[in-house]
Give the backbone structure.
Amino acid sequence: MMAAVPITLIESGVMIMRTGMKKKDKVTEIYFNEADSIMYGRTYNTKLKKQLRQLAADYPEQCKISVDADTDMIEFEINKNRLTFRINPELSAERKKLLSAEAKKNHNLPLKNKES
């Protein structure tokens, strides 16, 4: 496999990195053991990178990050108490419909137009 060559673009005064990597190759890896209080990892995930940057800015003693400018990947060390994993069961169609109706009712969301 060829190495990713970053391409820098300037759009509206903002520098954007294009790594040339395929989405399936942009993985998130998290490593930890039961004995240590620290987790280690790296990610390309934009949402997770944003959260890690904010956490590192607010709590530098809890989260340390380093950014690979060539690939836009973040490596991080984070206290295990700051990161959780949540497993959600599959919702039935009936439950999804009920939750959707409640959300629309409680949050006054506009209904989608259905044209025949």
Summary: Confidence is low (pLDDT under 50) at residues 1-11. Helices lie at 46-58, 93-107. Residues 93-107 form the longest helix (15 residues).
